[in-house]
């Protein structure tokens, strides 16, 4: 009963919608889609990517609304991660001997995930093509975007790029296209996807975008492996990826902290007041294990992506950073925002009831993440008094002046 969605003549979305997924790759999401595509040529029919295990029937039902699934002549595996390759075992059983086109590294990876002894795996390299009659698929290796095996597939006649995880978004919706969901909503979900998955790959993104641009090909539509398809704003998402990879930011600061008895909270509020009065856009995030709307670590790094400055605060607990803040710092170090072309500046703050130490540890963690840390931070004993709150306010003003000079 499930129907495919047409992208162009002979090109269909035949993916699956996962309405219930709420946590993936360490961040929160409102469900997702596992996008698979069917390209029907005059001589061959090709399935591009599959789905997460358990969603094969959705894909097959949508394929069946266009053609008999058993008439599929070939499968393209752009990426071996199980949310895209999980349907391959069932497809390989249903279509014995069907050629599965993938990179050389993907052959090894698929063999680690599945029993591929009877699979007809065909290695392709950049520039290789697959003729379907009136349509032609061209393959472009894209290692580390975002796994070593990744590749893009380009449909020349319709100028459609199938880039797997690049340019995707995690969202479950009835809308299949960016203009249906809305440009702002589509870009917002794409920003969260980039912030939580793509930041460490930013230098490679820029090189790949240059490589694609150097091919001189038209891109009228971008059909990623998750979320909506970019048919009206393909240029906007390409520009957004360029800007995000370069670290293009607003005059904005994101303040991240947790507090035990309210002391660090008072410091955060004073810093925020100073930054706001200094003309900055300010986002304040109380961690608390993500229990507050928009303050899960995945939401915070999304805010940080277009911020020029990051302030992180914590009280000292048993000579260490508070566990919620420590977990966030670990996540931040893994993302390595210092790999963005334009570095972000940072500032550490906090309180203690003994000899402290959390502020120094925060500064060291930010440096490891590639953030330029300003000074030694600011640490107070117990609850900040009026003078110390004034010092925080002044620090916020000084930060605003520094940000506006960048």
TrEMBL record:
Any GO MF annotation of the entry: oxidoreductase activity
Gene3D superfamilies listed in its UniProt record: 3.40.50.360, Ribonuclease Z/Hydroxyacylglutathione hydrolase-like
InterPro entries listed in its UniProt record: Flavodoxin/NO_synth, Flavodoxin_CS, Flavoprotein-like_sf, Metallo-B-lactamas, ODP_dom, RibonucZ/Hydroxyglut_hydro, Rubredoxin-O_OxRdtase
Entries under CDD domains matching the protein: flavodiiron_proteins_MBL-fold (cd07709)
Residue ranges annotated for the Flavodoxin-like domain, each copy included: 253-400
PROSITE patterns reported in the protein's UniProt record: FLAVODOXIN, FLAVODOXIN_LIKE
Superkingdom field: Archaea
Pfam families: Flavodoxin_1 (PF00258), ODP (PF19583)
Protein name per the record: Flavodoxin/nitric oxide synthase
